[in-house]
Amino acid sequence: MTTLSPENSLSARRSASFILTETPDRGLSDYPCQAKRRPPIDKTEWHGFFDELGHLAKSRDFICVNILERGLHPFVRTEAWKFLTGYYSWQSSRDERLTVDSTRRKNYQALCEMYEKIQPLLENLHRNFVETRNHIACDIQKLYDKDPLGNVLIDKKRLEKILLLSYVCNTQAEYQQGFHEMVMLFQLMVEQDHETFWLFQFFLQKTEHSCVINIGVGKNLDMLNNLISFLDPVFAEHLKGKGAGAVQSLFPWFCLCFQRAFKSFDDVWRLWEVLLTGKPCRNFQVLVAYSMLQLVREQVLQESMTGDDILLACNRLIDLNADELISAACMVYAELIQKEVPQPLKDFFL
């Protein structure tokens, strides 16, 4: 299958419906948000950030703040993400980036060759490898590979290969259910397998493995509880009583990096690129989760919901708009920094 480029697959992506399940009862538009953002950074503006040799002519901070406030045009996203993830150095020239890309391609090929050699050994000696390979194959099989118009969006065989290689090479993250959906979005963004593989690895590192169950997810949930207790004691009291266990049950939000909460892939990419900027703070994903919980807060308190009912209400938070959610989370951050923040929260966010 020929991989779709960002230009000719954009309309197909926007019409893709396999992350949509139902319409929520309430959306972010019901809550106060910042004014409508300026147009996203397009190709002309992006190229203006660099001089004739490809060196950065604007500060990285300036670019990241603009990405937070405005986002990236889809035709810019592929290149910009290579800087945001660390695939490219912000200090590199155009020629240096060509060399880096060539090196990353060769390194990926070397990893593929290594995997081919040790695969029989893994199959014979490591039961977890066989089980994980079966899990990956099963997860991928459930993915829709076409949009409603019949356009092929992903190559499942290539996706499976990248996920297996990531599992074998990444001893920190290994494989968890949901990675197949995340890597699929990287495959949709770029054309080459080595780009998909490295962007995903760098994404995990840049976001401090916040979506990995045995590394960041538990900490995110603990900090979300702490944040609720600090900013909204009334809601926190209910969650400790009738709503016990509700927050800890929200781990899929973090494991999938909120992928299923949005109405389009463009919205998912929009949030993810903000997480990569580190703006307005570290661990912005917890402020996003807090903002989503605020959407069900009044209903939870008015109806005195229990933990299971709260979880059900949270699961109905889909088809959201990324810009509105980012604005809401930024407002939470603005509220947070005006207060005497407890040290654990200060260390986590600031």
Please provide a brief summary of the model.
The protein has helices spanning 6-15, 43-47, 60-70, 74-85, 94-125, 127-142, 156-169, 179-189, 193-206, 213-231, 233-240, 251-255, 265-277, 284-302, 307-315, 322-336, 343-349. With 350 residues, it is an all-alpha fold.
Describe this structure in words.
The structure is a single chain. This protein is mainly alpha-helical and 350 residues long. It is built from 17 helices and no strands.
Counting helices, strands and paired strands, the structural category is mainly alpha
- Biggest pleated sheet: none
Low-pLDDT residue intervals, each spanning 5 or more residues: 1-34
* Approximate shape: globular
Distance between the terminal alpha carbons, to the nearest Å? 45 Å
Average residue pLDDT: 89
Number of helices: 17
Secondary-structure element string:
HHHHHHHHHHHHHHHHH
Radius of gyration from the CA trace? 21 Å
DSSP, total strands: 0
Fraction in helix: 55-70%
What percentage of amino acids are in beta strands?
under 5%
